[in-house]
Structure of Phosphoglycerate mutase-like protein:
Amino acid sequence: MRHFQAKHNIDPKYLQVLDPDLTEYGLQQGFNITFDNELDLIICSPLSRTIQTYLSLFHDIEKRQRIPFMLDTDLQEIGEIPADTASSKAQLKQKFPQLSSIINRDLAEDFNDKKNPLYSSSSNSVKQRIIRFHQRLWTQRNEKHIMIITHAGWLSRALDRKELKNGEIVKQIYKNGVV
């Protein structure tokens, strides 16, 4: 799934803002979507707009607590502009105190360093991030129904398809570890 509408999606000045938030409309989008109990795990990019999308979708705390949630640095947006760069680990813990233990568990201190070859925007780096992410799904996860909340650039490369709209959900079925 691509995150809901963010400020940089409607106003270009926010492209130069580090890790912009969802718009008011984006924050409300999740209240109109419901999921049955088929999800076993939610994996999310560690940028504010994807975390806000998760919190909007799963605004019911009871439901949110029933479905395991994790952040994955390989799901970060692929660009190097400020809007595609995550806030620091400390900033995310301050912004999302209810997720502080998950942020501590899942994120290294330098996860948002776009100069790190692991997270640069080079084609090879992006390809390696997508491969690493899929390999972890096949080798480390036993869940069958996993929701991924990430970004248009990452999804278009991973799924080899056109850019998704904000909040667009694509059901992708993998068989025997084949992407």
